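Key result, reporting period 2: structure in, sequence out.
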């Protein structure tokens, strides 16, 4: 398919070939670590690459990135959580099945929408891997539907532990006691479809890490390949760092109310944000340990690290009002500027992906589905439509896997659309019927220099391609608020005819 949309995933190699051939007999374990609303400069390896000063403390992530390959031009398919995750697991642009808006908070009792989710006609990568003999698990945030047909255990995951909605409080034992529950963030955590009481004082990021570690340990003991989808909600709001992490990172920070004890409320937004990512980083240390020595007996002869592909990225850009740092990119979550759709990413697979590699071409998460299926020797259903492609051979050869291809992003904005269209180094951008702009996003990732006047042919071609791409869309099958549908009707959306034309 020549016209791809985005999301972020997959590999490459800058100086020379970054990826070695994976033999047909090699079926790697797959660990996919997804953060939520992670700022572009909010991991040390990305900040260092772009020369951005940062206060984040992520030594384990940085070490793994250094021993693998980073992807400075990694993209997601949509600047919001739900649509991005749907695209990631389905291998399709969410607009093509009506999933381009977040599902509403189930506690709002929008009964029609609460019965919806990613269509059952979309076979997820989890099902493909499960059918191929992989042991599969999802830990953390789902956001693909609450009703039974859309539940993780019905969509290819043997094990599920986490929450179905768009977020959660980080100290679930506290919200377990809240009654009535007025939003998704207060719901009980689930284990395979059943509510579960959380241990007193437990911190959610640590709980998810521990569940993933246990699952991978069990899988290693069985000699069965695994697909672990570890979907942290960190550093998504609410900004609630773990007390021990905050005290470790900020030992000289005076609490406002020391008589009441010390917790996240005594610290600033950014301090909590940094502590939340530090908890993710601590989790990676546990994961590295168990992959290197699954039975933890001090003897690494049972190591599965060399046969485990690890992918790390975010579902969309960071949210600046919630302390995220997207430098050097423009804008943040919700925007089709680079700050909303371009995310930190690395891949690690000893002997298969070069240590210290930098692959500075666009990579799309839509490619994850067919490429991972190929690595796993997992048949894809013949009727399954994909918007990405298996790019393993391109990566082995060090080629740009999307050269001469046009890539699209679109976000509905009330009464208009925000759209971005990239081909090569150039990207066309327009918001709500405003002026079309063109940026060279390789030389100018901050999108500060509009070069539309110098590239009229590029812009005209991209607009025509955008209009053609829009014909593949469905209207949203749900809206994230009760007023969303009325706004859609009132504003006569989706307005593609006026969006994809010169003003």
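The corresponding designed sequence is given below.
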């Amino acid at each position: 398919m020549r016209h791809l949309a985005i999301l972020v995933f997959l590999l490459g190699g800058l100086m020379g070939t970054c990826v070695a051939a994976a033999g047909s007999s090699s079926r790697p374990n797959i660990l996919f670590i997804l953060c939520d609303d992670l700022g572009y400069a909010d991991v040390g390896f990305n900040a260092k690459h772009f020369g951005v000063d940062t206060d984040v403390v992520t030594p384990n992530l940085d070490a793994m990135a250094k021993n693998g390959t980073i992807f400075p031009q990694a993209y997601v398919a949509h600047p919001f959580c739900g649509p991005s995750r749907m695209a990631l697991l389905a291998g399709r642009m969410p607009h093509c099945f009506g999933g381009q808006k977040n599902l509403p908070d189930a506690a709002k009792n929008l009964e029609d929408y609460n019965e919806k989710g990613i269509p059952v006609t979309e076979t997820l990568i989890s099902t493909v891997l499960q059918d191929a003999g992989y042991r599969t698990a999802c830990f953390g945030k789902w956001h693909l539907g609450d009703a039974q047909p859309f539940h993780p255990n019905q969509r290819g995951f043997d094990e599920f532990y986490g929450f179905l909605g768009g977020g959660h409080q980080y100290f679930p034992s506290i919200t377990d006691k809240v009654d009535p529950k007025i939003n998704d963030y207060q719901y009980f955590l689930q284990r395979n479809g059943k509510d579960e009481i959380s241990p007193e004082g437990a911190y959610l990021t640590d709980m998810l890490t521990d569940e993933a570690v246990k699952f991978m340990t069990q899988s290693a003991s069985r000699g069965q390949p695994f697909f672990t989808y570890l979907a942290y909600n960190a550093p998504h709001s609410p900004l609630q760092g773990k007390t021990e992490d905050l005290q470790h990172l900020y030992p000289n920070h005076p609490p406002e109310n020391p008589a009441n004890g010390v917790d996240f409320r005594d610290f600033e937004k950014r301090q909590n944000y940094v502590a939340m990512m530090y908890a993710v980083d601590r989790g990676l240390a546990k994961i590295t340990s168990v992959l290197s020595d699954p039975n933890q007996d001090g003897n690494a002869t049972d190591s599965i690290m060399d046969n485990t592909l690890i992918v790390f990225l975010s579902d969309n850009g960071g949210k600046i009002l919630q302390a995220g740092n997207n430098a050097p990119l423009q804008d943040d979550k919700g925007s089709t500027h680079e700050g909303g759709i371009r995310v930190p990413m690395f891949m690690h697979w000893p002997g298969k992906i070069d240590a210290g590699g930098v692959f500075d071409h666009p990579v799309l998460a839509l490619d994850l589905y067919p490429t991972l299926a190929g690595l796993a020797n997992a048949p894809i259903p013949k009727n399954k439509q994909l918007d990405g492609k298996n790019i393993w051979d391109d990566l082995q050869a060090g080629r740009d896997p999307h050269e001469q291809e046009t890539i699209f992003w679109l976000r509905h904005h009330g009464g208009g659309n925000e759209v971005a269209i990239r081909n090569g180094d150039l990207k066309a951008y327009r918001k709500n019927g405003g002026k079309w702009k063109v940026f060279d996003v390789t030389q100018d990732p901050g999108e500060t220099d509009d070069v539309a006047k110098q590239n009229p042919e590029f812009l005209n071609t991209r607009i025509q391609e955008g209009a053609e791409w829009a014909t593949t869309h469905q209207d949203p099958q749900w809206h994230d608020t009760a007023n969303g549908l009325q706004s859609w009707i009132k504003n006569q959306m989706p307005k593609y005819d006026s969006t994809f034309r010169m003003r």
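The first strand starts at residue 3 and ends at 5. Confidence is low (pLDDT under 50) at residues 1-25. This case is discussed further under Risks and Mitigation.
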